[in-house]
Backbone:
């Protein structure tokens, strides 16, 4: 599977519209990888249970 290119804005939209686990499945990575990507791109994540 090729790596998908996401902008910071696209990642922000995804993590605020769906739970991190759902975003991870969609991207083909782990939820930990999504969290690390958010940290690297300085994307704030919603509090647990709100995403």
Residues:
């Amino acid at each position: 599977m090729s790596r998908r290119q996401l902008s910071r804005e696209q990642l922000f939209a995804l993590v605020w519209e769906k739970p991190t686990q759902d975003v991870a499945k969609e991207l083909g990575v782990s939820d930990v990888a999504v969290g690390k990507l958010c940290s690297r791109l300085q994307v704030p994540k919603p509090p647990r249970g709100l995403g």
